[in-house]
Write a structure and sequence with these properties.
The structure is a single chain. The protein is mainly alpha-helical. The chain has a single domain (about 10-400), classed as Up-down Bundle (Amino acid/polyamine transporter I). It has 17 helices and no strands. The protein has helices at about 5-20, 25-40, 40-65, 70-80, 80-115, 115-135, 135-165, 165-175, 185-195, 200-210, 220-250, 260-300, 305-310, 310-330, 335-360, 360-365, 370-400. Helix 1 runs parallel beside helix 11 (about 220-250). The longest helix has about 40 residues, at about 260-300. The radius of gyration is 20 Å and the shape is globular.
Length: about 400
């Protein structure tokens, strides 16, 4: 295989890794719940979150991949010691979300095949661990995320053809939401955090760094991969939105559902639709387990050289710990609330660090020039996500105590 083909595979793999890291069980649940609440107006939420996510991701990927430094290393250059704080926050958030991803995998196995939840936890963890036991684990990770991501898109498309959603109504409300703009703000922030918050936006960038696709000469490809990742996540979000909208527009009520995506698929396509939902949920969970574990451990490499030397074994241990905690705790609701709150705080911090780094020649090099429009829009995203991240953190902490 030529170097160009290898590079092209890593670029696409990084895009899919980022996208499928974002498309986890929480992604599916949020999309179904918000569509049930806001109906066609949820289209505007998707549009707004795409724009904000793309701005955040393009800023972060440009800085990391131009310098060839991972997120924590850039932070340490901006302020010595800051990288360790960022690495700890991202890894902690990644661990707790991975516990939820294992739970989502078990729910997928149960919905698809009727496998008991406790067995499903072990199976979900074992499938993800198997990837990192292989000799060429990163290439396998790239391939698996592409295949499972493709399966999700095809399955959701099949359901859309069955439920025939009001596409025209969705299109109009994407630009002029019937519910009004202010009512949609909490959903926009939730989607922003779920698409590029915490470890998610770093998954693809760190994959490109590991593949050696760095430096100013590769910026065109890096930008393309970054936008592609957001595009894939958006495509799945839009398709899922249309599938659920087709169901709720016909009168289905998802408000009291514990598994709204599966119940929507069942309402729209019967028992086979329910099984399809299980397949989508399973694919989403497995790819998110892989993405969360890989990226969280890539942040921990800073702490000790032994972690980098034994990366695959540390990733396997990370997945195993997530699986064991899920088995012991069952439903770690408090941990997930705490992780969600932390996740909301991580994006403005990491994006802010990258924006500071973008203006430092000592980090970026003498010849690099960060686009002014991207820098200014990045500051806007930092302000918006910081304000809403803090208010969300305070409200969630208040609900815990």
């Amino acid at each position: 295989m030529t170097e160009k083909k290898k590079g092209g595979g890593a670029l696409l793999g990084a895009a899919f890794l980022m996208a499928t890291s974002a498309i986890g069980p929480g992604f599916l649940t949020q999309t179904a719940q918000f569509t049930g609440q806001h109906m066609a107006s949820f289209g505007f939420v998707i549009l707004a979150s795409i724009i904000l996510s793309a701005i955040a991701q393009m800023n972060i990927w440009r800085v990391l991949c131009t310098t060839g430094l991972r997120g924590q290393d850039v932070a340490n250059k901006v302020l010595p010691g800051l990288g360790y704080v960022v690495a700890f926050m991202v890894a902690l958030g990644g661990l707790v979300f991975n516990i939820g991803n294992v739970g989502g995998g078990a729910l997928g196995f149960n919905t698809l095949l009727g496998i008991p939840t406790e067995v499903g936890y072990i199976l979900a963890g074992a499938v993800a661990i198997l990837v990192f036991l292989l000799k060429d684990a990163k290439a396998m990770m790239d391939s698996l995320t592409k295949v499972l991501g493709g399966i999700m898109i095809v399955v959701i498309l099949v359901v859309i053809f069955g439920v025939k959603p009001p596409v025209g109504d969705a299109l109009v409300n994407t630009f002029v939401p019937a519910t009004g703009y202010s009512a949609l703000v909490p959903a926009i922030i939730t989607l922003l955090g779920g698409t590029v918050g915490g470890y998610i936006t770093f998954s693809g960038a760190h994959r490109l760094i590991d593949a050696g696709i760095t430096g100013e000469e590769n910026l065109k490809e890096i930008n393309k991969s970054s936008v592609m990742g957001i595009g894939i996540a958006t495509l799945v979000r839009v398709l899922l939105f249309l599938a659920v909208l087709g169901v709720v527009a016909k009168g289905a009520d998802l408000s009291g559902s514990s598994n709204p995506a599966a119940d929507a698929f069942r309402a729209g396509a019967g028992e086979i639709g329910y099984r399809f939902a299980g397949l989508v949920l399973l694919c989403a969970a497995i790819t998110s387990i892989i993405g969360a574990a890989y990226t969280s451990v890539s942040f921990l490499k800073t702490f000790h050289p032994a972690i980098e030397k034994n990366e695959n074994w540390v990733i396997i241990a990370f997945i195993a710990v997530s699986t064991i905690i899920m088995l012991v705790l069952g439903q770690p609701a408090t941990l997930l609330v705490l992780a969600g709150a932390l996740n909301g705080l991580i994006l403005p911090i990491t994006l802010g660090i990258c924006l500071i780094a973008a203006k430092k020649k000592s980090i970026m090099g003498e010849s690099y020039k960060h686009p002014t429009w991207l820098f200014v829009l990045g500051i806007v995203v930092v302000i918006i996500s910081a304000y809403l991240g803090i208010t969300t953190f305070v409200s969630k902490m208040g609900s815990l105590f």
